[in-house]
Fold this sequence. Notes:
This protein is mainly β.
Amino acid sequence: xxxxxxxxxxxxxxxxxxxxxxxxxxxxxxxxxxxxxxxxxxxxxxxxxxxxxxxxxxxxxxxxxxxxxxxx
Length: 72
């Protein structure tokens, strides 16, 4: 369950998919990044292996619109 979805104010230097300790960044841009925090760690998979997912940072065209639809 999503507990918060807010625009990320930082500017990631790298592009691509990166993860560490339950936080994942999926981006093609250094701006317009949305931070989605989950109540309980979800299970995700990378190359078929299970990984923890607690926070997702994702670049999207309209972070505010996506945040609004996730929090309803």
